[in-house]
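cache lookup: miss for this entity combination. No prior model stored, computing from scratch. Input as submitted by user K.M.:
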Amino acid sequence: MKKRPGLIRWNFFGYLGVAVILTLAYIFVGLDLHVKSLVSQRLTALNGAPVTVGHATFKLSGPRIVLEQITFMDPRNPEFVQLEVQNVKLDLDWQPLLRNRIVVKDGVASGIHLNDLRTPPVPAPVNSLVAPQSSPSLSAASAYLASPGRMELPPEDAWKAVPSFQAQHALNSEISTQVAAWQKKLDDLVATHQQQTQSIESTQQTSHDKEAGSESLRKIMVGHIEKTKLDLDQLEISIKSEANNLLTKTQSLNELIPHDVTVIKQEARLPSVEFNNVAAEVGAEQIRPILSVVDNFYFRLLAWLERTEQPMRNSFGRQQGTEYFFVGKYLPPRLWLQKLDIISKESPDGKLGEVVGHIKDLSSEPFNYPAHLSLQASFKKAEVENLQMEAQIDHTRGQVDDRLQLSVASFLVHDLDFVKTPTFRLGIEQATAKLNMEVLAQTDSSTMTIATTMNKVSYRVETESEALKKVFDDALSPLTSLEMSATAQGKLPALQWTYASNLAERLRTALQGVLSQEFAEYNARLRDKAYQRVLESSKILEASLVTASDDMQKRILAEKEKLVTASSDPSTSKKDSETSKGL
Amino acid sequence: MAIKPRYSSRSSFLQIFLALLWGSWLGFSPAWLTLQVFVLLIALIFLRLPWLWLLASYGFSWLVAAFLLDPLMDKVGNLLLREPRLDHFWTEMAKAPVLPWTHFNNSMVLGAFLLGILTIPFWAYVAWNLRSRTPVR
């Protein structure tokens, strides 16, 4: 039996040599790729859209990371390149790197290319300090004005809900009940009369003293006939009085016409002409893209920096868990840009912008290190001139004191929509704008002020309705310069916004004018229709009431005539009573 | 009828045990770019371990983790890393140089490491069985 080889491999030099070669190969080849992939992943997580790095180099001397051709895609349109940075050099600190933390002692980013400051072609991001407007009165009014059947009166079914229709039904049933009651009273009267007549006659037949009895019974019969006559007279008076009451009620249906119009207008769902919220509707759409700088800071950058947990994406069929970040007194921040200069010289072809910027102490621990940022930039190709920004992030001593001042002397605005539905689009196609923005965010309260002026404004009104297009064209074409201001107060992130804009005033006046005119015409048609309906209903009811009343009168008259005949010859009363059953 | 073992080995109990343990640690670990994985691989230069057992243990552990144990390891790791009483301990570890490169602050890495430790008796039993049943070449 051979001797067992031991656990320790004493002749490990060959293996060690291979391992050293593999390690060196990784350091010189694989490490750069690893750094490139890692930076790309982290920046993508921060940007919310793909970020690609053309080339990355990690140098052990320094240590230093050099990144080339970093391309940031637009988070609102991931196919669109928003920003490119040609070169970034970051000098790191060894001590934090040994602890898997990145502290940039000194850095330079150069060659900045901004493609465009375009407004989002897709709906606004979910997280925004500007809440979406809940009452889109502009789109409702536009949809109404674009609708070809807007002046059509509601269908017949809709009129069944109006008060006069219900009152008419109630009245109809009341008349039927009343007529039935009259008939019953008359029938009862006739039946009682017959019973009593028969009773008198039977008494006459059984009487012993025929002569004396006949005389007295004739008197009784005459008295009885007189009483029935009186009852019939009273019934006639009562029918006349009640019929008059019902007639008055029928005529009072006219009083319900205004209520009918109100109900049917609700059914037609006409848009409001108040337009109290139109300044907010227009203003919110205008400032949302501008405020995306602040939105991105609060909802993306600060959230990314301050997070203490980061769930990792699954890869190769395995879960990758959650990373936890710990904070300690002698522990450097997870990411700390102690100093980063941004320098870019404008190129003759306009591809690069003129940028001078400084970032100082931007870290994942703003509660330990207050950060300062400043930027002056102009991007000829993107038509952005003289952008100036000063910002501070200070969360030290348990207090928040974030400040931002941003002004842009001139920039292009494209495709800013106030209303965008499948059938209607209203907004600014292109304009030249200037901007002033001030943000002060503190622990208890925050204030924001945004003022923009747009010149050379060309509007976009897209609709199939020529009438609607004319309304907006007439209203907007004289307005070539727009002034808009928005102020916000409150505690982040629930701010109360107030908007003012000459565009909103113009839109409100134009829409109110057109809608008021159309509503007046529509209301008149509604009133006419309601009046016609009530008139027809009243006529039908009156006719049925008069017919029923006349029938009753005729029956009473017939009964009275029979009584008159009977009183002249009481012996025929039996025969008459028998024939009256047929009535 | 006794089953004839088809495998014979000259490896000792300790070599088989370490091969199984190394393999399972590598299999449980969700990522290869951690310091402990690097150390385990470097250790293979100096230690003579049976590759067959190491690869078998690695494959078995990787599959069991991927299809069964990943959620458990993640849960255990999250539980420990979120425990307030251990916060000071983790912070001290984060302050130490090099240690953070083990990615102990990742719930899956920590869970996999703990599971690896808990499986030591199991692998010792398997190694002892293999050694006692396998004829020595």
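stored under new cache key. DSSP finds six helices and no strands in chain B.
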